[in-house]
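B., you asked whether I could sanity-check this one before it goes into the benchmark set. Here's the sequence:
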Amino acid sequence: MTARRALSPTTTPLLKRIRAASHVGFDRVVFEFDGPVPANYDVAFVPEITGDPSGLPVPVIGQALLGVTFSHANGHDEDGNVFTDAITTLGLKNVIQVVRSGDFEAVLSFGIGLARQTQFSVFTLTNPSRVVIDISATFTTVPTQIFFVDSHAFATGQGPYVRAVQRQVRPPNVGARSLDWLFAGPTPAELAGGLTLVNSDATGFSSLSISNQVARVRLLGGADSHGSTLTIANEISPLLKQFPTVRWVKIYDPNGQTETPTGQSDSIPAGLEP
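And here's what the prediction gave me:
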């Protein structure tokens, strides 16, 4: 499925904000511009998101990826001011995050990470100028807790240092899909409330298995505490232990190493030690 619009360019629109909300049966993502509605847009499912102009893959968390491109539009003004974040986690039923992948020579591009590939529609509105993407979200989900570090509590030394937020997660593989939501990070409202993802250099995970009440998760990217007592393990462990099939959590570094690989016990890799 693809949605395109092409008109003669006029004044170059400037992206001022990205808004999103869940509605009954669909999630809505809104790109709001100063100036006219962009003369050209292209919205389509893609196998990966690539950066413009680098051509390199851009990480976007989701089981399906929606590429969005605006031609004759900018994400920055003449002074270089950018009005939207490079990565925005939305925490909706289907829409996980929006990631800016390009803002070069009046071509503005994004990747939208989804929990599931579904039907979508695109339309425009004026006063102010908006491009609206409605993405179907009629599938079943279950409420799941995702744990992030409470930076205010950690700074003052008054625990608990992790705090749970709720996400709607699509079965099956709820544990793995919940880890996706963890690595997507907090929403803007959660960030404003002091929550943050401490990733300890991990960029995601390559595998999750659960057997005999032991969950085993292997990290991607890295596993380095940088001397801190608070690491990605403090977020992963309670996330997985909320499920009745998990009592212990073993976390492996990207090389497949953990301190106690056997037995019914928790374990972290050496790199996550303080």
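One thing to flag: The longest strand covers residues 14-23. Otherwise nothing jumped out at me.
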